Amino acid sequence: MAFDGIVTKCIVSELNKSIINSKVNKIFEPTKNDIMLGLYNSGLNYCLHICISPSTCRLNLTTHSKPNPITAPNFCMLLRKHLIGSKIISISSFDLDRIVEIDFECYNELNDKIIKKLYIEIMGSCSNIILTNNDNVIIDAIRHISSNREIMPARFYELPTKSKNSILEINSFDKFNSIISSISVNEPLDKKISDSFNGLCRPFIQYVLSKNNNDLKLSFDFIKRIIANIENNSLSCVKTDNDYVIDFSDDNNNLRINFFIDDYYYLKDTDNAFKGFRNDILKIVLSHLKKCTKKLDNINNKLNECKKQDEYKLFGELITSNLYKLKDNTDSVTLENYYNNNVPITITMDKSISPNKNAEKYFKKYNKLKSTLEIVSIQKKETEKELNYIESIVYSIENAKTINDLEDIFDEISDNLISSKSAKNTTKKNNKKNTTKDNLLKFEINGFTVLVGKNNKQNDELTLKIASKEDYWFHTQSIHGSHVILKTDGKDVDNNTIFECAKIAAKYSKAKMSSNVPVDYCLVKFVKKPGSAKPGMVVYTNYKTLYV
Fold first, then answer.
1. Residues 6+ positions from 55 with CB-CB distance below 8 Å
2. Going by C-beta distance under 8 Å and a sequence separation of 6 or more, which residues neighbour residue 367?
3. Nearby residues of 88 by Cβ (< 8 Å), 6 or more positions away
4. Is residue 419 scored above 70 in pLDDT?
5. N or C: which end of the chain has fewer CB within 10 A?
6. Does 127 score more than 80 pLDDT?
7. Nearest-angstrom CA–CA distance, 281 and 531
8. In 5-148, which residue ranges form alpha helices assigned H by DSSP?
9. Where are the alpha helices (DSSP H) in 307-354?
10. How far is C-alpha 184 from the chain's CA centre?
11. Which residues pair with 494 in a beta bridge?
12. Helix (H) / strand (E) containing 101
């Protein structure tokens, strides 16, 4: 939902009915784009959220808390110095501009009553929060450059210049129509209106035009009625095909739009934070995946070279057995291969050295490749295990649904992939209060409880600590997926329940889109974790396989 001029005016109207005369008792700056004012009014506590993030800039009361930094930023400390203990005496907006002025009544060092003003400019990437005195002299701002203006202390604050018409000043349809008609005919009608008048976003205009069958006169009258009814709480947010817009409502609620905006943008912020965190983790993991894949390719190339070791050994033996008839300074020799029915074989020679030295050279190559084969074969097994583990993390990331899921994954890769502790300190999100057991997926099947891990860390906790020895363990065969535990609680389990659990294991695996998935299952007591195994990696015996 676009936070346009009409929404701004609606929010200001609702705030005037709820937080006027509120006392400011707390001020926080959770991020560089957020200011939270804790307010108290007539026995009620409110939290006014000011956000200047380019994509989600807004002003509203909120019920959603944000974690606060241990050390308050400079602008937060400035606001605390000037506004803690003050009282909000007025909230106003200018025309349909997305600029809000909040006036605070407070006292100076001489205990004289004074007014200080907080200007909130909601203008996308140019958004700003500016504190001034009663004479509009700037005390400070959260950003010192905004909308091509320098916002510096001790200068006078001036409103940004307007480049569009004010629909509040348009009282006749003819004037409205003449302004629209002056714009290029190639532009869509909704864009013409939005570009011509201040505070009207395109989704709202599109909704108005559609509601009025593209009749421009009816649309103009509708917009004017919407604006005229902002103050009487008769508006609300309604859903369109792709967005939410302001429209009339019968429900009379003083903070209807306010809290809708709060929930809408909270979900948007949460989604953006989730996607950003997920992409950061995925970037780290894919970097390791690329390195591991490249390492495996190099190992395979070395293994291909090692296939020539027997050939080099043969060349050395044939040269040694025929030294008596070989001459120096020859590029190649053809000898009978007594290992293959004396079939002639041509051997390349280095003419700068003797035949005996050529034989030694081939034996040296043979011994080198033999040693290399032993080392590289071990490296290949270890690299394949590492690659398999990294692929399991990618699967976990792709299936993560919440920030907590991603934090579990980040904890895991911090211990197993990221060597730098500083990377962990700078990237890691907030500490979680929930335990692993609280975050597991839980199902009820035929009276039995089924638990599903969502990542390697949870899989280990679930199988090795939470599950009992007589519970059943399920996992897709040779396919990355979640550990699934069927809690038996000492009861006999029927075949239908086993089959349903196997289907859950298939659903929460990389094979979830396949039609015939092999799922292994056994008692938990037959599942073991080798000492050097990566998180989520186990071995199991005494198992059966179902195809689901």
1. 272
2. none
3. 19, 20, 21, 22, 24, 39, 102, 103, 104, 105
4. no
5. C
6. yes
7. 26
8. 5-16, 74-83
9. 309-321
10. 41
11. none
12. strand 99-107
- Read off the pTM: 0.76
- Secondary structure (3-state) at 106: strand
- Mean pLDDT of all residues in 235-262: 87
Return the structure tokens found at 415: 């211990």
The Cα–Cα gap between 60 and 37 comes to 11
Query: Domain spans of the chain?
Result: 5-162, 167-248, 295-429, 436-547
| Closest to 504 (Cα-Cα) out of 447, 544, 456, 546 | 546
Helix (H) or strand (E) holding 38: strand 34-41
Q: Which residue in 286, 231, 260 sits closest to 12, CA to CA? A: 231
Nearest to 459 by CA among 483, 434, 479: 483
Buried-exposed string 492-530: b where 16+ CB fall within 10 A, e elsewhere:
ebeeebbebbbbbbbbbbbbeeeeebbbbbbbbeebebe
The confidence score (pLDDT) of residue 242 equals 80
For residue range 397-409, what is the model confidence (pLDDT) as tens digits?
A: 998 998 988 998 9
pLDDT for res 539: 95
Calpha distance 103→86 (Å, rounded): 10
Cα–Cα distances (Å) from 126 to 54, 58, 117, 223, in that order, read 7, 12, 19, 27
CATH number of 5-162: 2.30.310.10
pLDDT in tens, 473-486: 999 999 999 999 99
Neighbours of 182 (CB within 10 A): 9
**93 three-class SS:** strand
- How many residues in the chain? 548
